[in-house]
Amino acid sequence: MIGRLAGRIEYRAEDHVLIDVRGVGYVVHCSDRTLGALPGPGEPVALWTDLLVREDLLQLYGFLTLGEREWHRLLMRVQGVGAKASLAILGALGADGVSRAVALGDWSAIKAAKGVGPKTAQRVVNELRDKAPSVMALDHAGASVPLADAPEPAAADAEAPEPAPRPAAAAPARAEALSALGNLGYAPGEAAAAVAEAQHETPEADTATLIRAALRRLAPKG
Predict the structure, then answer these.
(1) Which residues, 6 or more positions from 95, have their beta carbon under 8 angstroms from its beta carbon?
(2) Which UniProt keywords apply (predicted)?
């Protein structure tokens, strides 16, 4: 499977680009949003890709982020959503917008994509809602660890009992969860409180688990 391409753009078309990779040209289909963010012909480019394989078809799709590619794969699993509809949804909302709409159950935002009806939009939200935190975590996996959370070196001759080890993933998971919730539109204060409660309850939780737990706390009551 071709998972990533890096080369130069040979030409751009309405729904795809041709990328020259060391003399081999790859036709890569992209959403309108992704096409709009790509450089012009002759410029270097790198895209995450997904290969659609059928009896009569081999077609590459290109994405700027891993999160965008993962949403494409998930959307394609929903009944009534093919490659064209998936790219329309991603083109209309972007990866962050899809994460926001699905996580918050906003099927009307999905319906705004060209060619996507209300029933299909509702299926997208209902079937993929539990997947949103994992995809959000994927795109925030590069978040840096705050310096203040770095462990202090222990003295070589210290004889005091060692403190209970803090889960190594706690600090980055917290930062990534806060960033993801901020992208969903939650205020920093309420996001921080929800993440803190979730992390206190499950200190070893990874990013996706923290996001999922925080969203449950932030959901409207009643």
Answers:
(1) 63, 65, 67, 68, 71, 135, 139
(2) Cytoplasm, DNA damage, DNA recombination, DNA repair, DNA-binding
Q: Quote the CA–CA distance of 112 and 114 in Å, as a whole number.
A: 6
Both structure tokens of 219: 């959901």
The backbone torsions φ and ψ at residue 19, rounded to the nearest 5 degrees and listed phi first, read -110, 125
**Bridge partners of residue 45, in order along the sequence:** 7
Q: Cα(first)–Cα(last) distance of the chain, in Å? A: 47
Alpha carbon 166 to chain centroid distance?
A: 27
Give phi and psi for 21, each to the nearest 5: -115, 95
Query: Beta strand 24-29 with 44-54: parallel, antiparallel or unpaired?
Result: unpaired
Q: How far apart are CA 26 and CA 180, in angstroms?
A: 33
In the chain the domains, ranked by start, together with CATH numbers, are: 4-63 (2.40.50.140), 66-129 (1.10.150.20), 140-148+167-218 (1.10.8.10)
Res 24 pLDDT > 90: yes
Task: Give the residue among 207, 190, 42, 80 at the shortest CA–CA distance from 133.
Answer: 207
Predicted confidence (pLDDT) per residue in 108-157, tens digit:
999 999 999 999 999 999 999 888 888 887 766 543 333 333 333 344 44
Q: Map tokens 């939780």 to a residue.
A: 205
**pTM above 0.85?**
no
Q: Are 102 and 128 in contact (CB under 8 A)?
A: yes
DSSP assignment letter at 144: P
**Three-state SS for 116?**
coil
Q: Alpha helix locations (H) across 129-187?
A: 132-139, 170-183
